[in-house]
Amino acid sequence: MPRRRDPLSEFNIWPAFTDALSGLVMVLVFLITVFVITEVLIGREMMGKDSAIGQLQRIVDHLEGLAGDAEKEAVRLRGRVQGLESTAGERDRLMAQLRDELAAARAAQATLNADKTKAEETVTSVQEQAALLSARADRLALELARLNQALAANQQDLTQKDAVIVAQKDKIDALDSALKKKLQERVQELEKYASEFFGRLREVFAGNPDIKVVGDRFVFQSEVLFPPGDAALSASGSGDLDKFAMVYQQLAARLPPDLPVIIEVQGHTDRTPIRNSRFPSNWELSTARAQQVVNYLIQQGVAPQRLAAVGMGEYHPIDAADTPEAYRRNRRIELKITSR
Protein backbone atom coordinates (compact mmCIF):
# COMPACT_ATOMS: atom_id res chain seq x y z
CA MET A 1 0.00 0.00 0.00
CA PRO A 2 1.49 3.29 -0.97
CA ARG A 3 2.23 5.92 1.65
CA ARG A 4 0.16 9.16 1.64
CA ARG A 5 2.11 12.37 1.40
CA ASP A 6 1.58 15.21 3.85
CA PRO A 7 0.55 18.37 2.01
CA LEU A 8 2.47 20.66 4.35
CA SER A 9 5.63 18.71 3.94
CA GLU A 10 5.40 19.08 0.24
CA PHE A 11 4.74 22.98 0.17
CA ASN A 12 7.77 25.10 -1.16
CA ILE A 13 7.75 28.74 0.24
CA TRP A 14 10.69 30.09 -1.72
CA PRO A 15 9.02 30.92 -4.93
CA ALA A 16 6.44 33.03 -3.10
CA PHE A 17 9.11 34.78 -1.07
CA THR A 18 11.08 35.50 -4.20
CA ASP A 19 8.06 36.98 -5.82
CA ALA A 20 7.34 39.23 -2.81
CA LEU A 21 10.93 40.40 -2.61
CA SER A 22 10.95 41.21 -6.32
CA GLY A 23 7.81 43.26 -5.85
CA LEU A 24 9.34 45.16 -2.92
CA VAL A 25 12.47 45.94 -4.93
CA MET A 26 10.39 47.26 -7.75
CA VAL A 27 8.44 49.55 -5.36
CA LEU A 28 11.71 50.91 -3.92
CA VAL A 29 13.04 51.56 -7.41
CA PHE A 30 9.82 53.37 -8.28
CA LEU A 31 10.03 55.52 -5.15
CA ILE A 32 13.66 56.39 -5.79
CA THR A 33 12.82 57.29 -9.39
CA VAL A 34 9.97 59.52 -8.28
CA PHE A 35 12.24 61.25 -5.72
CA VAL A 36 14.91 61.89 -8.35
CA ILE A 37 12.35 63.23 -10.81
CA THR A 38 10.86 65.45 -8.08
CA GLU A 39 14.25 66.87 -7.25
CA VAL A 40 14.92 67.58 -10.85
CA LEU A 41 11.59 69.28 -11.23
CA ILE A 42 12.03 71.34 -8.06
CA GLY A 43 15.39 72.45 -9.31
CA ARG A 44 13.97 73.45 -12.58
CA GLU A 45 11.09 75.21 -10.79
CA MET A 46 13.48 77.22 -8.67
CA MET A 47 15.51 78.15 -11.71
CA GLY A 48 12.45 79.36 -13.67
CA LYS A 49 10.81 81.09 -10.67
CA ASP A 50 12.17 84.51 -11.58
CA SER A 51 11.15 84.20 -15.17
CA ALA A 52 7.72 82.94 -14.06
CA ILE A 53 7.24 85.90 -11.72
CA GLY A 54 8.00 88.33 -14.59
CA GLN A 55 5.69 86.47 -16.81
CA LEU A 56 3.01 86.57 -14.12
CA GLN A 57 3.55 90.33 -13.72
CA ARG A 58 3.02 90.78 -17.42
CA ILE A 59 -0.10 88.65 -17.21
CA VAL A 60 -1.35 90.74 -14.27
CA ASP A 61 -0.71 93.96 -16.22
CA HIS A 62 -2.50 92.52 -19.18
CA LEU A 63 -5.36 91.43 -16.97
CA GLU A 64 -5.60 94.93 -15.45
CA GLY A 65 -5.81 96.37 -18.99
CA LEU A 66 -8.45 93.83 -19.80
CA ALA A 67 -10.25 94.75 -16.57
CA GLY A 68 -10.28 98.43 -17.64
CA ASP A 69 -11.57 97.48 -21.01
CA ALA A 70 -14.09 95.24 -19.32
CA GLU A 71 -15.24 98.16 -17.14
CA LYS A 72 -15.66 100.32 -20.20
CA GLU A 73 -17.50 97.54 -21.92
CA ALA A 74 -19.63 97.14 -18.78
CA VAL A 75 -20.50 100.87 -18.87
CA ARG A 76 -21.34 100.59 -22.56
CA LEU A 77 -23.35 97.47 -21.93
CA ARG A 78 -25.21 99.14 -19.06
CA GLY A 79 -26.11 102.02 -21.43
CA ARG A 80 -27.17 99.53 -24.02
CA VAL A 81 -29.15 97.64 -21.40
CA GLN A 82 -30.94 100.86 -20.47
CA GLY A 83 -31.60 101.49 -24.19
CA LEU A 84 -32.78 97.93 -24.52
CA GLU A 85 -35.01 98.39 -21.47
CA SER A 86 -36.62 101.50 -23.07
CA THR A 87 -36.73 99.60 -26.35
CA ALA A 88 -38.36 96.74 -24.48
CA GLY A 89 -41.01 99.16 -23.15
CA GLU A 90 -41.61 100.45 -26.65
CA ARG A 91 -41.67 96.88 -27.82
CA ASP A 92 -44.25 96.00 -25.17
CA ARG A 93 -46.37 99.00 -26.24
CA LEU A 94 -46.00 97.98 -29.86
CA MET A 95 -46.80 94.40 -28.93
CA ALA A 96 -49.98 95.56 -27.16
CA GLN A 97 -50.88 97.70 -30.19
CA LEU A 98 -50.15 94.79 -32.48
CA ARG A 99 -52.28 92.52 -30.30
CA ASP A 100 -55.15 95.04 -30.58
CA GLU A 101 -54.63 95.33 -34.31
CA LEU A 102 -54.46 91.56 -34.54
CA ALA A 103 -57.73 91.27 -32.64
CA ALA A 104 -59.30 93.89 -34.92
CA ALA A 105 -57.87 92.12 -37.95
CA ARG A 106 -59.30 88.82 -36.73
CA ALA A 107 -62.69 90.48 -36.17
CA ALA A 108 -62.45 92.02 -39.63
CA GLN A 109 -61.45 88.64 -40.97
CA ALA A 110 -64.51 87.10 -39.32
CA THR A 111 -66.68 89.82 -40.84
CA LEU A 112 -65.04 89.29 -44.20
CA ASN A 113 -65.62 85.58 -43.91
CA ALA A 114 -69.29 86.22 -43.16
CA ASP A 115 -69.46 88.68 -46.04
CA LYS A 116 -67.67 86.19 -48.23
CA THR A 117 -70.23 83.55 -47.34
CA LYS A 118 -73.06 85.94 -48.12
CA ALA A 119 -71.30 87.01 -51.31
CA GLU A 120 -70.87 83.39 -52.34
CA GLU A 121 -74.57 82.80 -51.68
CA THR A 122 -75.37 85.95 -53.66
CA VAL A 123 -73.07 84.84 -56.47
CA THR A 124 -74.84 81.49 -56.54
CA SER A 125 -78.21 83.22 -56.68
CA VAL A 126 -76.96 85.62 -59.35
CA GLN A 127 -75.57 82.76 -61.34
CA GLU A 128 -78.91 81.01 -61.18
CA GLN A 129 -80.68 84.19 -62.21
CA ALA A 130 -78.08 84.71 -64.95
CA ALA A 131 -78.80 81.22 -66.22
CA LEU A 132 -82.53 81.96 -66.25
CA LEU A 133 -81.92 85.31 -67.95
CA SER A 134 -79.64 83.67 -70.48
CA ALA A 135 -82.34 81.14 -71.31
CA ARG A 136 -84.88 83.93 -71.54
CA ALA A 137 -82.49 85.96 -73.70
CA ASP A 138 -82.17 82.99 -76.05
CA ARG A 139 -85.95 82.73 -76.29
CA LEU A 140 -86.20 86.47 -76.86
CA ALA A 141 -83.49 86.30 -79.52
CA LEU A 142 -85.50 83.65 -81.36
CA GLU A 143 -88.64 85.72 -80.96
CA LEU A 144 -86.76 88.82 -82.13
CA ALA A 145 -85.51 86.99 -85.19
CA ARG A 146 -89.08 85.92 -85.96
CA LEU A 147 -90.33 89.47 -85.42
CA ASN A 148 -87.55 90.85 -87.62
CA GLN A 149 -88.64 88.55 -90.39
CA ALA A 150 -92.24 89.59 -89.92
CA LEU A 151 -91.13 93.23 -89.72
CA ALA A 152 -89.21 92.91 -92.93
CA ALA A 153 -92.30 91.51 -94.63
CA ASN A 154 -94.44 94.22 -93.06
CA GLN A 155 -91.90 96.85 -94.07
CA GLN A 156 -92.17 95.77 -97.66
CA ASP A 157 -95.94 95.86 -97.38
CA LEU A 158 -95.78 99.27 -95.71
CA THR A 159 -93.54 100.57 -98.46
CA GLN A 160 -96.13 99.59 -100.99
CA LYS A 161 -98.89 101.07 -98.85
CA ASP A 162 -96.87 104.24 -98.35
CA ALA A 163 -96.72 104.67 -102.06
CA VAL A 164 -100.50 104.24 -102.21
CA ILE A 165 -100.93 106.65 -99.26
CA VAL A 166 -98.74 109.25 -100.96
CA ALA A 167 -100.81 108.97 -104.08
CA GLN A 168 -104.03 109.17 -102.05
CA LYS A 169 -102.64 112.08 -100.03
CA ASP A 170 -102.01 113.95 -103.23
CA LYS A 171 -105.59 113.27 -104.21
CA ILE A 172 -106.82 114.28 -100.76
CA ASP A 173 -104.78 117.49 -100.88
CA ALA A 174 -106.25 118.26 -104.26
CA LEU A 175 -109.76 117.49 -102.97
CA ASP A 176 -109.12 119.53 -99.83
CA SER A 177 -108.00 122.49 -101.88
CA ALA A 178 -111.02 122.15 -104.11
CA LEU A 179 -113.30 121.77 -101.07
CA LYS A 180 -111.84 124.82 -99.38
CA LYS A 181 -112.20 126.77 -102.56
CA LYS A 182 -115.79 125.59 -102.92
CA LEU A 183 -116.49 126.33 -99.25
CA GLN A 184 -115.02 129.77 -99.60
CA GLU A 185 -117.21 130.34 -102.60
CA ARG A 186 -120.24 129.13 -100.64
CA VAL A 187 -119.37 131.38 -97.72
CA GLN A 188 -119.06 134.30 -100.07
CA GLU A 189 -122.41 133.36 -101.64
CA LEU A 190 -123.96 133.05 -98.18
CA GLU A 191 -122.57 136.40 -97.10
CA LYS A 192 -123.82 137.94 -100.34
CA TYR A 193 -127.25 136.40 -99.78
CA ALA A 194 -127.37 137.52 -96.13
CA SER A 195 -126.24 141.01 -97.06
CA GLU A 196 -128.83 141.29 -99.77
CA PHE A 197 -131.52 139.70 -97.60
CA PHE A 198 -130.90 142.01 -94.64
CA GLY A 199 -130.63 144.99 -97.01
CA ARG A 200 -134.08 144.27 -98.41
CA LEU A 201 -135.49 143.72 -94.89
CA ARG A 202 -134.00 147.00 -93.75
CA GLU A 203 -135.81 148.74 -96.61
CA VAL A 204 -139.12 146.99 -95.92
CA PHE A 205 -139.08 147.71 -92.15
CA ALA A 206 -137.40 151.11 -92.31
CA GLY A 207 -140.27 152.88 -90.60
CA ASN A 208 -140.54 150.53 -87.58
CA PRO A 209 -137.98 151.13 -84.79
CA ASP A 210 -138.92 147.84 -83.12
CA ILE A 211 -137.83 145.83 -86.18
CA LYS A 212 -134.23 146.31 -87.22
CA VAL A 213 -131.02 144.70 -88.43
CA VAL A 214 -128.33 144.38 -85.75
CA GLY A 215 -125.07 143.05 -87.16
CA ASP A 216 -125.80 139.67 -88.75
CA ARG A 217 -129.25 139.36 -87.06
CA PHE A 218 -132.75 140.55 -87.84
CA VAL A 219 -134.45 141.52 -84.55
CA PHE A 220 -138.18 141.74 -83.67
CA GLN A 221 -139.04 143.11 -80.26
CA SER A 222 -141.36 140.57 -78.62
CA GLU A 223 -144.18 143.11 -78.27
CA VAL A 224 -144.31 143.38 -82.08
CA LEU A 225 -145.19 139.66 -82.40
CA PHE A 226 -146.61 138.47 -79.06
CA PRO A 227 -148.75 139.74 -76.19
CA PRO A 228 -146.93 139.85 -72.79
CA GLY A 229 -146.40 136.39 -71.26
CA ASP A 230 -147.92 134.58 -74.26
CA ALA A 231 -146.69 132.69 -77.34
CA ALA A 232 -149.68 133.33 -79.63
CA LEU A 233 -148.92 135.57 -82.63
CA SER A 234 -150.72 138.89 -82.71
CA ALA A 235 -152.45 140.11 -85.89
CA SER A 236 -149.85 142.82 -86.41
CA GLY A 237 -147.08 140.31 -85.76
CA SER A 238 -148.44 137.97 -88.41
CA GLY A 239 -148.41 140.88 -90.89
CA ASP A 240 -144.77 141.63 -90.13
CA LEU A 241 -143.83 137.96 -90.57
CA ASP A 242 -145.69 138.00 -93.91
CA LYS A 243 -143.37 140.77 -95.08
CA PHE A 244 -140.34 138.80 -93.84
CA ALA A 245 -141.50 135.67 -95.68
CA MET A 246 -142.16 137.68 -98.85
CA VAL A 247 -138.58 139.06 -98.89
CA TYR A 248 -137.20 135.58 -98.25
CA GLN A 249 -139.26 134.05 -101.06
CA GLN A 250 -138.04 136.67 -103.51
CA LEU A 251 -134.41 135.86 -102.71
CA ALA A 252 -134.91 132.11 -102.26
CA ALA A 253 -135.88 131.80 -105.92
CA ARG A 254 -132.29 132.79 -106.77
CA LEU A 255 -130.74 130.75 -103.95
CA PRO A 256 -128.70 127.71 -105.12
CA PRO A 257 -130.43 124.50 -103.93
CA ASP A 258 -127.18 123.11 -102.50
CA LEU A 259 -126.29 126.28 -100.55
CA PRO A 260 -126.76 125.25 -96.86
CA VAL A 261 -128.72 128.33 -95.73
CA ILE A 262 -130.52 128.08 -92.38
CA ILE A 263 -132.69 130.77 -90.77
CA GLU A 264 -132.20 130.22 -87.05
CA VAL A 265 -135.08 131.68 -85.00
CA GLN A 266 -134.02 132.48 -81.41
CA GLY A 267 -136.51 133.34 -78.65
CA HIS A 268 -135.27 135.60 -75.79
CA THR A 269 -137.04 136.80 -72.60
CA ASP A 270 -136.21 139.21 -69.79
CA ARG A 271 -135.35 138.21 -66.21
CA THR A 272 -138.92 138.49 -64.96
CA PRO A 273 -139.90 134.97 -63.76
CA ILE A 274 -142.94 133.29 -65.27
CA ARG A 275 -144.69 130.33 -63.66
CA ASN A 276 -147.92 128.92 -65.00
CA SER A 277 -149.26 125.62 -66.22
CA ARG A 278 -148.23 126.31 -69.82
CA PHE A 279 -144.86 128.01 -69.23
CA PRO A 280 -143.15 126.81 -66.03
CA SER A 281 -140.14 129.05 -66.81
CA ASN A 282 -138.74 131.45 -69.38
CA TRP A 283 -137.12 128.49 -71.13
CA GLU A 284 -140.51 127.17 -72.21
CA LEU A 285 -141.81 130.67 -73.13
CA SER A 286 -138.81 131.55 -75.31
CA THR A 287 -138.86 128.14 -77.00
CA ALA A 288 -142.60 128.31 -77.65
CA ARG A 289 -142.29 131.76 -79.25
CA ALA A 290 -139.41 130.64 -81.50
CA GLN A 291 -141.35 127.54 -82.52
CA GLN A 292 -144.47 129.63 -83.23
CA VAL A 293 -142.49 131.88 -85.60
CA VAL A 294 -141.03 128.84 -87.39
CA ASN A 295 -144.48 127.26 -87.77
CA TYR A 296 -145.90 130.47 -89.23
CA LEU A 297 -143.04 130.86 -91.71
CA ILE A 298 -143.54 127.26 -92.85
CA GLN A 299 -147.21 128.12 -93.44
CA GLN A 300 -146.03 131.03 -95.58
CA GLY A 301 -144.05 128.73 -97.85
CA VAL A 302 -140.55 128.75 -96.24
CA ALA A 303 -139.00 125.28 -96.57
CA PRO A 304 -138.79 123.52 -93.16
CA GLN A 305 -135.24 122.39 -93.84
CA ARG A 306 -134.26 126.06 -94.02
CA LEU A 307 -135.55 126.79 -90.49
CA ALA A 308 -134.46 126.08 -86.87
CA ALA A 309 -136.12 127.10 -83.57
CA VAL A 310 -134.00 127.76 -80.44
CA GLY A 311 -135.17 128.92 -76.99
CA MET A 312 -132.52 131.00 -75.16
CA GLY A 313 -134.51 132.00 -72.01
CA GLU A 314 -133.26 135.08 -70.18
CA TYR A 315 -129.61 134.06 -70.30
CA HIS A 316 -128.39 136.08 -73.32
CA PRO A 317 -129.45 139.68 -72.68
CA ILE A 318 -128.28 142.55 -74.88
CA ASP A 319 -128.78 145.06 -72.03
CA ALA A 320 -127.71 144.06 -68.51
CA ALA A 321 -129.40 147.03 -66.80
CA ASP A 322 -132.24 146.43 -64.35
CA THR A 323 -134.68 148.90 -65.92
CA PRO A 324 -137.99 148.54 -67.79
CA GLU A 325 -136.33 149.74 -71.01
CA ALA A 326 -133.54 147.15 -70.66
CA TYR A 327 -136.12 144.45 -69.99
CA ARG A 328 -138.04 145.54 -73.13
CA ARG A 329 -134.92 145.37 -75.30
CA ASN A 330 -134.06 141.88 -74.00
CA ARG A 331 -137.53 140.53 -74.89
CA ARG A 332 -136.97 139.79 -78.58
CA ILE A 333 -137.06 137.35 -81.49
CA GLU A 334 -133.81 137.15 -83.48
CA LEU A 335 -133.51 135.63 -86.96
CA LYS A 336 -129.97 134.74 -87.96
CA ILE A 337 -128.71 133.51 -91.33
CA THR A 338 -126.38 130.57 -90.75
CA SER A 339 -125.43 127.30 -92.43
CA ARG A 340 -125.37 123.62 -91.63
TrEMBL record:
<feature type="coiled-coil region">
    <location>
        <begin position="95"/>
        <end position="157"/>
    </location>
</feature>
<protein>
    <submittedName>
        <fullName>OmpA/MotB domain protein</fullName>
    </submittedName>
</protein>
<dbReference type="InterPro" id="IPR050330">
    <property type="entry name" value="Bact_OuterMem_StrucFunc"/>
</dbReference>
<keyword id="KW-0812">Transmembrane</keyword>
<feature type="domain" description="OmpA-like">
    <location>
        <begin position="214"/>
        <end position="340"/>
    </location>
</feature>
<dbReference type="GO" id="GO:0016020">
    <property type="term" value="C:membrane"/>
</dbReference>
<dbReference type="Pfam" id="PF00691">
    <property type="entry name" value="OmpA"/>
</dbReference>
<keyword id="KW-0175">Coiled coil</keyword>
<keyword id="KW-0472">Membrane</keyword>
<dbReference type="InterPro" id="IPR036737">
    <property type="entry name" value="OmpA-like_sf"/>
</dbReference>
<dbReference type="InterPro" id="IPR006665">
    <property type="entry name" value="OmpA-like"/>
</dbReference>
<feature type="transmembrane region" description="Helical">
    <location>
        <begin position="20"/>
        <end position="42"/>
    </location>
</feature>
<keyword id="KW-1133">Transmembrane helix</keyword>
